[in-house]
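To fix ideas, we reproduce below one chain and its tokenised fold.
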Amino acid sequence: MDYTMDAEDKVLVTKFEDINVNDLNNFFQDMFSLKDLCDDFVELFKKEERYYTNEEKYNEILDEEVEVLNYIHQLSEEIREGYEEVIAAFYSRRIERKKERLMKAFKEVEKKPKHPKEEDK
């Protein structure tokens, strides 16, 4: 079974102390819209393969692809510009998780017994 979380579920599991809940919810809503546009784009590609290149329907689909591509670009830019704080919070959280993994690995290495160096005979 394929379960997809909705925006409200994602807000509940995404913990940011300094990000407004409404901003986070709107961010996820826009991300779902972006996903839907990308799905539409992929479906157009699949539909395109059903027609010969000299058919009018093929050209109409290409026109639709360009239109959807422009919507994807526009929405992506709006997300990047409108949710800079949310995106920065995700990056910061990512860096913190990486630091935690590195520190954990470092502590594990420190725990291993050191082997004495063998002298050349």
